[in-house]
Write a structure and sequence with these properties.
Elements (H helix, E strand, L loop, with lengths): L2 E5 L2 E3 L5 E8 L8 E6 L5 E7 L6 E3 L7 E6 L4 E6 L8 E8 L3 E4 L3 E5 L2
Parallel strand pairs: 2-11
Antiparallel strand pairs: 1-3, 3-8, 4-5, 4-9, 5-6, 7-8, 9-10, 9-11
């Protein structure tokens, strides 16, 4: 059974940093690209970042480029999202997703709240 379990969310002040983690199990993690997707309160889903299976290439939404860094540890079956210079508009539930010609699995999400 494919499982994606996010952790690391919480309350942080504007300008602060946070690192999200996603523990993957039930599949060969190193064979799949992965993404982070977020949903702000009352808004739709927004793709945040993507990383290829080997971790050598990634891409970002313009809204987070230069502030967020996606990475992965294939030996530990874990995906990360390092977030810095956080803004109130980054407040959202962040989902870890598996890419397979489109997203085929989602985690349950972790809430990030950016507020003073």
């Amino acid at each position: 059974e494919v499982q994606l379990v996010e952790s690391g969310g919480g309350l942080v002040q504007p300008g602060g940093s946070l690192r999200l983690s996603c523990a993957a199990s039930g599949f060969t993690f190193s064979s799949y690209a992965m993404s982070w997707v977020r949903q702000a309160p009352g808004k739709g889903l927004e793709w945040v970042s993507y990383i290829y299976s080997g971790g050598g290439s990634s891409s970002y939404a313009d809204s987070v480029k230069g502030r967020f860094t996606i990475s992965r540890d294939n030996a530990r079956n874990t995906l990360y999202l390092q977030m810095s210079s956080l803004k109130p508009e980054d407040t959202a539930v962040y989902y870890c997703t598996r890419e397979n010609s489109g997203i085929d699995y989602w985690g349950k999400g972790t809430l990030v709240t950016v507020s003073s």
